[in-house]
């Protein structure tokens, strides 16, 4: 029992807040810990490597026009009772171009939710259906990465911030894995301003299973890393 309410409107308000918290937790990046322990090498590390290989295969595949239609059909089926989302899906079907992949991912609509969920729970079937979108996102992000490095005046360390909801079990895993390798199964959105990430954190309602976490991520432009870029002009 989370609470006792005698006022129906307060109950509805609380239910709405709980639902928002649940959605934020579900849309947060899942964190994988890869260590040198025997148990991890035999199980967790193996799953991590298989997932990375699967994504790499998707990125190397040749994608036909039918791949896009396959995703559109799935989205229409999943959101057939949601007129607003159906309207956005129809717009996607009529106007989508590979060079607009980041714009579509950052738009408040079903596409980023479906992709984030598939990455989070490692839904291989759904990820395969998303293969052309993942490829377009990766290509555009790599182009932005190259542009960002070319235009950087210096090669100083870049610090970015990310605030998100996190399950208590995941937070406990992180605290017990100091010095280990952490991987997030997501296209991460971050901010150069700490205050922006903190402001987002303050919108997350705490729950017995949900906590808040602020990541400070240092990026060395001199090191070969996963692609990143400044995407304000694209989103």
TrEMBL record:
GO biological process: G protein-coupled receptor signaling pathway
Domain G protein gamma: 37-112
Gene3D superfamilies linked: Toxin ADP-ribosyltransferase, Chain A, domain 1 (3.90.176.10)
Domain of life: Eukaryota
The protein's name: G protein gamma domain-containing protein
Lineage per the UniProt record: Eukaryota, Metazoa, Spiralia, Gnathifera, Rotifera
């Amino acid at each position: 029992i989370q609470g006792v309410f005698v006022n129906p409107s307060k109950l509805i308000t609380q239910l709405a807040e709980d639902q928002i918290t649940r959605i934020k937790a579900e849309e947060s990046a899942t964190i994988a810990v890869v260590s040198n322990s025997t148990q991890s090498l035999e199980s967790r590390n193996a799953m991590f490597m298989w997932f990375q290989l699967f994504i790499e295969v998707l990125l190397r595949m040749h994608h036909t026009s039918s791949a896009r239609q396959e995703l559109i059909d799935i989205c229409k089926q999943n959101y057939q009772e949601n007129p607003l989302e159906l309207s956005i899906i129809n717009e996607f079907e009529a106007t989508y171009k590979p060079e607009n992949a980041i714009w579509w991912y950052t738009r408040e609509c079903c596409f980023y939710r479906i992709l984030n969920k598939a990455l989070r729970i490692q839904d291989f079937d759904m990820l395969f259906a998303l293969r052309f979108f993942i490829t377009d996102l990766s290509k555009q992000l790599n182009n932005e990465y190259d542009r960002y490095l070319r235009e950087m005046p210096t090669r100083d360390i870049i610090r970015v911030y990310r605030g998100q909801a996190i399950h208590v079990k995941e937070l406990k895993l992180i605290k017990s894995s100091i010095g280990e390798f952490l991987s997030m199964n997501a296209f991460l959105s971050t901010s150069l301003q700490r205050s922006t990430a903190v402001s987002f954190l303050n919108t997350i309602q705490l729950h017995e299973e949900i906590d808040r976490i602020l990541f400070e991520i240092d990026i060395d432009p001199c090191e070969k890393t996963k692609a990143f870029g400044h995407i304000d002009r694209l989103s």
